[in-house]
User: Fold this.
Amino acid sequence: MTAQRKKPQNGSQPQGERLQKILAAAGIGSRRQCEELIRMGRVEVDKKVITELGFRADPRRQRICVDGVPIKFEPPVYYAVYKPDGVVSTNRDPSGRPRVIDLVPETDLRLFPVGRLDLHSEGLILVTNDGALAERLTHPRYGVPKTYIVQVAGEPSRDVLAKLMRGIHLAEGVARVAKIRVRRKQKNSTILEMVLNEGRNREIRRIMARVGHKVFRLKRIAVGPIRLGKMKPGEARKLTVAEVNALYRAVGLHRDFPKD
Assistant:
């Protein structure tokens, strides 16, 4: 007969914090990324594989591992990276293609990209081990604007631009462009500047295809207050303290780091 788990008595709560929160605080990934690691069975607590998202643990008393490696709490690190075309945003790539994190000089820390750009898109992507900040930067609830320069086929009409602002129906819901303007027109294409407050998979390419304008080139130039500026493809730089503080304010957090 299978033993039943005893429920906490007198309203007492399980000890410790939720496992995904612990992992995020240790710089393993954003909260949602850590939840996926748990679901995949890649997380162990005291040598037992945990797949329950509600599981609580105490990192001071229990041994927590991801892929067999014990987690450790490291100082927060923040980088801006110019992702070139052909570089993947994920940390794990079975095909062995170059990754965004390979462009960061911090090789002894466990870092991860904040959000992603698809394989053939380029531009700004943030890399960190601050799971709490990454979670808010990528969650649609906080509406952190991402700005893109997009070269599309043909010349989108005013009606098309208005339609993009109203919203385009995709399989997972309506995708809306927060702002859009024509930067310049070329012989067979148009350069647009677009701002999105969310980041569905290949969102810009998909909505532009829906309105009949294929994307030739896509470059992200800003994430909230952080701009790509004069960075070159493949370049990485540490964010300044002022930039990190600006990111925290952008997502409603108010932890001020000491000045540079």
Summary: The two ends are 63 Å apart (CA to CA).
